Amino acid sequence: MNKYIIILLSLFLSLTVNAQKNKKTESFKVFGECGECKERIETTVHGLGIKNATWDEKTGMLTVSYDSTRFTKEKIEQKIASVGHDTYDFQASDTVYENLPGCCHYDRYVKPESTTKPLDTVEKVGTIMKPSQSISGIVQGKDDKGKYFPLSFAIVHSLGTNETSITDSLGTFQLNASTPDQLIINHFGYTTDTVDVQSSVPLTITLKDAAAQKLKGVVVRGRNESTHISSLSTINTLNIGSKELKKAACCNLSESFETSPSVDVSYADAVTGIKQIELLGLSGKYTQLLTENTPEIKGLAGAFGLTFIPGTWIEGIQLTKGSGSVVNGYESIAGQINIEEIK
Fold first, then answer.
1. At what angle do helices 35-47 and 73-82 cross, to 10 degrees?
2. Preceding peptide of 180 cis, ω within 30°
3. pTM value surpassing 0.90
């Protein structure tokens, strides 16, 4: 029994030693872009029966340990290229590459025409279809004495790549963007500027102080309330606008005061339906009624003249409570009501 155990242990040790001798570890470039690419590449290698395979998302290098008697580096690369990822020796087909998710669309590798050169030479000759470039520069300001100083924490945004960089304490910035491009520079207290970049030469951008800029013009707009008292007039006059009249939905002048607490309108005669106003507790004959500042409803017409003017004709009403000046006459003892008609 012990003899068989010794034989089995010897076989196991010999197999382990052979496996260690045949084990080979290599690293080679596999083009990818994101974490989903990492999962796809490593899963493909594991599917071959190789357990140790790690792809670095930053460098794009795949490190794999495999049995050299069962696998070769070319076989592994060919399998990876079949799922859509280029290597220096094998390129994925355009159809498989296009079927990858949008986040996995990396910059394709263009294989040089001559493949007889060593691998290190191929790496130098091989080019990327969309080489990444860097745009850098300095953002500065200018004081009252004409001296320039760096602006830290300025925001530099690229319209081409939609990337953003913030300047450091020296005012410098760097963006991963290709030219030509447009940069938008923004800093609190300074005027936002847009710069067209045509080359990768370092830029020097000077922002103008926003406080030093002169205003071209200011437009002030105001809107009066539907009922307001003018602050420009020396007479305490309540102005009733067209918006307030729309709330009353009036058919004539007598119904235009339904929403105004200053004027009371009551029926003077229930048979004829004549209405009269009361201002400051006095009947309508003590209130002067004007149309366009012209006395129109007076005398006998004052009893039923409130129904003479349709509500749709009225643009506004000016209401003055209390006796006016001697110019208004004795008729405005309780006050004065002026009707502005639609022109």
1. 130
2. yes
3. no
